[in-house]
Specification:
The structure holds 2 protein chains of 2 kinds. By secondary structure, chain A is of the alpha+beta class. Chain A is built from 11 helices and 8 strands. Chain B has 4 domains: 184 residues, Up-down Bundle (Multidrug efflux transporter AcrB transmembrane fold), CATH 1.20.1640.10; 86 residues, 2-Layer Sandwich (Alpha-Beta Plaits), CATH 3.30.70; 80 residues, Alpha-Beta Plaits (2-Layer Sandwich), CATH 3.30.70; 209 residues, Gyrase A, domain 2 (2-Layer Sandwich), CATH 3.30.1360. In chain B, helix 1 runs antiparallel to helix 15. In chain B, 45% of the residues are buried. Classes of the chains: A alpha+beta, B alpha+beta.
């Protein structure tokens, strides 16, 4: 099999402006939604309490909202989680509420609504039993996060992001050249913003695992740009007659098959997580999917174009090569101004 | 050119064998076991206990798989749950024979241990520890209030300074000033004398003298190094206390770890009742022994008919204290001994006086102070105050019969039940600093099993999809790529097991993602080989050039991914950390498998064939990518 039968170099850079305008528009839209809608942070960041319960029948969310609303915890969120039998109830932190009692009180209310009583006969977990000794509702998970923890996570998330950016920029500047380093970071940060824009637009829950996914994608799509830059450097070295634009077109064309196959393979894995991973991995896989799609786009169309506009030249990349050409017998060889 | 020296092949075989050895224990699952641990602080569980258990089982003709002593507990593994339950009863009856039913010396509980053969465990080949999200249980993150610990320490220092100066007959009034102790003397000579005495007695404190008008002011604060030591000690003591409290719960494999400078993680697998666990952990209590003020003013204050005298505090009485002494007690502010000084407290029965007693043991510092104070106050009442959430409650008032020392007993307690409760409260008071639950997660066991299944399915189906595609697209090279991806998975799981990481659902996701990304290296190599073939290279040259040229790119791209992974590791906590560890290790193992290992397989297959005509890498379309104007690479430039 051979999917990519490319007869001549595809003139990607001729359309660089168009691609970048599309990219910029997406970016602006993402920022717009981030500002107007904001991210729907999970309680890991905001602090609060979440109770996940599963019902024998499909859960009636409207009724549950009434039941939990009656507890006086303020702005309580009731949503399905995974299937229609599973619900997640999120209670924000509020002054004057003993957070530690929230999971038991919420479960007690859910249980009472199913005309059952909570029994602690089973030492390992509280169970809700109705008259027929069946369990109409089971508490699957409860989670409680104090408000101080959230601030810290937010701060550490920001530090992690900054250190990824600085680390990658330094490495690329050292391995290639500062123009590439800037191009790669601009292109890939724009991916990150677009992922966040999706999360803001759809109000998907932004949790810790999503943050991990976003940062992993940042590393992954930078490596995408690196593959192309590597090839640009090689082409500069090998094909000396080409102009910068032709070199970039050639580099992208000769790596495009690898780019697409690799991303396709990674995406198959991510798709598998999206299908089999359940609600916990759902948004993680979602973030990766968006990241992978935009990662191809930004590495191929944006990063290389930015490097081109920054004026990347043959001399930027093959400095060592030109040095070796200096005649050691030339008395002026060492004089560089 | 595509040949490996023998040692490289040996290395490949070794890597696979070692990888398999450390991966295999994960596949065995768990076996029923009985865990024996100390239920009391005074009980010592050691190798002797293991022998004892072995004897008990032999006597009852039960054959366990093995009996081992590890860390602080003895584990006995059985072939099936029936044997396990029978053995638990036998061991419990044997070890705790003749002991008080309410407070047996040993806790004998059902547990699960790895089913892998014992010889594997002796090679440290053990399965990964499953995180709570995969096995169910409760997780707590506790914030330790170190400021409160410091407050308490300073208060203690004020008291100690006062008694030392009184002993040396240096007249002054000692007061607390923030986190320092301060006092004034009328002349410099006395001040110097005091500073010398204090420096000798409390070397951890920095004492300074300064003129204050006509007087000399002396103040002392803990040295920074001592402060750090004090805080570390506070955390350690809290962890020990938590360990003792958790031991009473009889759960297997509880985790108590320090996280950051002032936090403690407690994980209790298999338990979901958060209320009960909170009750056990959240009893943020501290304890103080103080003299009761017997004066008329104090009695009036206790009845609520007068103000609380200077230098006294008024506390509510616990219900059974209240029945004998009214609802409030007024006590001196000076602390004789605190929960820190308490080594042990045990309920007992006094044969002589036919009554329940609690035997108390203090450490040397507490004992010295107790001796001093009780000697001067024989016949006067002393109280025990338990502080919970900054609110004190008098849990016992007893009359001092004689000078008390390291060991003394509290008698005149109603019944044995009250005595054991008092002993428990006394012991539970030994927390160096109050703690607060700032994060709590409870995961049901069914959700845990569900999460394992979801994680495994994600990895398995993703792997299969990649396998099918790679084999179809790259034929033999695809098979080699998937084999090396399989080796990558094997090595990754082996390394994770070897360092005993806690596997969580995000960790499994990281394994999946790492595999999905690791295939990149194989794709790079395979595409490069095709390209070389397209350019007209001979197969052997194409293979060699493909691997060599791809290597630089693989290295660069893996390093950028590694930078992201390391940043996550540095700043992440909890779930993120688990993800980051797997991600970073996965990058390292993938470099080994995708470059070194797959090259080895290719060399093994093709390396011997001198006249290689073609390689099975799928169709190579020779239309040729024409690079711009120049059709052929400029050879001279190479």
């Amino acid at each position: 099999m051979e999917f990519f039968r490319i007869r001549r170099d595809i003139p990607f850079m001729r359309h660089a402006l168009v691609f970048n305008i599309i990219s910029a528009l997406t970016f602006v839209a993402a920022v717009f939604f981030l500002v107007t809608r904001g991210l729907n942070f999970s309680i890991e960041f905001t602090g609060g309490t979440a109770v996940e319960a599963t019902y024998a029948q499909s859960a009636n969310l409207e009724r549950l909202r009434g039941v939990v609303g009656g507890l006086g915890y303020g702005d309580v969120q009731v949503q399905n989680y995974g299937t229609s039998h599973d619900v997640i109830i999120r209670v924000p932190t509020k002054a004057g509420i003993d957070q530690k009692k929230v999971p038991d009180r919420v479960f007690g209310a859910l249980c009472a609504a199913e005309s059952g009583t909570v029994s602690t006969a089973d030492a390992s977990r509280p169970t809700c039993l109705n008259a027929a000794k069946a369990e109409p509702v089971v508490m699957k998970r409860s989670e409680l996060v104090g408000p101080s923890v959230g601030d810290e996570l937010m701060r550490n998330g920001a530090y992690a992001m900054i250190s990824v950016v600085i680390g990658i920029m330094l490495y690329l500047a050292f391995r290639f050249e500062w123009k590439f380093s800037i191009a790669a970071i601009v292109a890939n940060l724009h991916d990150v913003v677009i992922i966040l824009g999706f999360f803001a637009f759809f109000q998907w829950e932004f949790g810790l695992s999503v943050l991990a996914g976003v940062l992993a994608v940042l590393g992954y799509s930078v490596n995408e740009s690196v593959v192309i830059f590597d090839r640009i450097r090689e082409t500069f070295r090998v094909l000396r007659k080409l102009s910068t634009m032709q070199v970039i077109d050639h580099a992208i064309t000769s790596t495009i098959s690898r780019t697409i196959i690799t991303h396709f393979c990674t995406q198959m894995m991510v798709l598998s997580m999206l299908i089999f991973g359940g609600p916990t991995l759902h948004y993680f896989a979602m973030a990766l999917t968006i990241g992978i799609c935009f990662g191809i786009y930004s590495s191929v169309f944006v990063a290389a174009a930015i490097a081109m506009w920054l004026g990347v030249k043959r001399e930027d990349l093959i400095r060592t090569g030109s040095k070796s050409e200096i005649d050691p017998n030339d008395p002026n060889a060492g004089a560089v101004v | 050119m595509n040949r490996y020296p023998v040692w490289k092949f040996v290395l490949m075989v070794l890597a696979v064998l070692i990888g398999a050895l450390y991966t295999v224990p994960n596949l065995y699952g768990d076996a029923p076991a009985v865990q024996v641990s100390a239920a009391k602080l005074t009980t010592k569980v050691g190798a002797d206990t293991a022998t004892q258990v072995q004897q008990l089982l032999t006597a009852a003709s039960i054959t366990p798989d093995y009996v081992t002593f590890e860390g602080t507990s003895v584990h006995v593994r059985f072939a099936n749950p029936d044997l396990q339950i029978h053995a638990r009863d036998v061991i419990n009856a044997g070890l705790n024979a003749g002991a008080d039913k309410d407070s047996p010396p040993y806790s004998v509980s059902l547990a699960l241990v790895p089913r892998a053969p014992h010889w594997m465990a002796s090679l440290r080949a053990m399965p990964m520890y499953l995180g709570l999200d995969l096995r169910g249980g409760v997780h707590f993150l506790l914030q330790v209030d170190l400021k409160a610990a410091l407050d308490k320490k300073t208060d203690g220092l004020v008291g100690d300074t006062r008694s030392l100066l009184r002993e040396k007959q240096l007249r002054t009034s000692v007061a607390r000033d923030g986190n320092a102790v301060s006092m004034t003397f009328h002349d410099a000579a006395t001040a110097t004398q005091a500073v010398n005495a204090l420096t000798d007695a409390f070397p951890d404190v920095q004492w300074t003298q300064a003129p204050d008008g006509t007087d000399v002011r002396v103040s002392g604060a803990l040295k920074p190094a001592a402060l750090v030591k004090e805080q570390e000690a506070a955390i350690k003591q809290n962890m020990t206390t938590l360990g003792n409290r958790v031991a009473g719960l009889g759960t297997s494999e509880p985790v108590i770890q320090q996280q950051g400078p002032d936090r403690i993680v407690v994980e209790l697998p298999g338990i979901q009742d958060t209320a009960k666990a909170q009750e056990l952990l959240g009893r943020t209590a501290t304890l103080e022994f103080r003299l009761v003020d017997p004066s008329a003013e104090a009695n009036a204050a206790a009845d609520g008919t007068g103000p609380v005298p200077f230098g006294d505090d008024r506390f509510e009485n616990a219900p059974d204290v209240g029945t004998r002494h009214g609802s409030f007690t007024v006590v001196r502010k000076d602390v004789i001994a605190s929960g820190d000084d308490l080594t042990d407290a045990q309920a007992n029965f006094d044969q002589q006086n036919q009554g329940s007693i609690v035997r108390v043991t203090l450490n040397s510092k507490g004992a010295a102070s107790m001796k001093n104070v009780s000697g001067q106050n024989v016949g006067k009442p002393m109280s025990v105050i338990l502080f919970e959430k900054n609110k004190g409650q008098v849990i016992n008032v007893a009359t001092i019969q004689s000078e008390l020392g390291e060991h003394f007993q509290i008698s005149g307690i109603g019944n044995s039940e009250q005595a054991s409760e008092l002993a428990l409260l006394l012991r539970s008071g030994a927390l160096a600093a109050p703690m607060e639950i700032i994060e709590q997660t409870a995961i049901g066991p069914s959700l845990g099993a569900d999460n394992i299944a979801k994680g495994l399915h994600s990895v398995a189906w993703g792997f299969v999809a990649i396998l099918v595609f790679m084999c179809a697209y790259y034929l033999l090279f695809g098979v080699i790529s998937t084999l090396s991806l399989g080796v990558n998975l094997l090595l990754l799981v082996a390394v994770l097991s070897l360092i005993q990481t806690t596997l969580t659902l995000p960790g499994i996701a990281a394994i999946a993602l790492t595999l999905g990304m690791a295939i990149d290296a194989n794709v790079l190599v395979n595409e490069r080989i095709r390209e070389e073939l397209r350019g007209g290279s001979a197969p052997q040259t194409a293979i060699a050039a493909g691997y060599e040229r791809a290597w630089a790119t693989i290295l660069d791209s893996n390093i950028t991914t590694l930078i992201a992974g390391l940043s996550l590791l540095a700043f992440g906590s909890g779930a993120i950390r688990g993800f980051a560890i797997v991600h970073c290790l996965g990058i390292l193992t993938s470099m080994f498998s995708a470059v070194f290992f797959s090259r080895g397989l290719v060399n093994l297959w093709y390396g011997r064939q001198k006249k290689l005509k073609s390689v099975l890498i799928g169709q190579v379309w020779k239309g040729g990518a024409k690079p711009g104007a120049s059709a052929q690479p400029d050879e001279a430039a190479r």
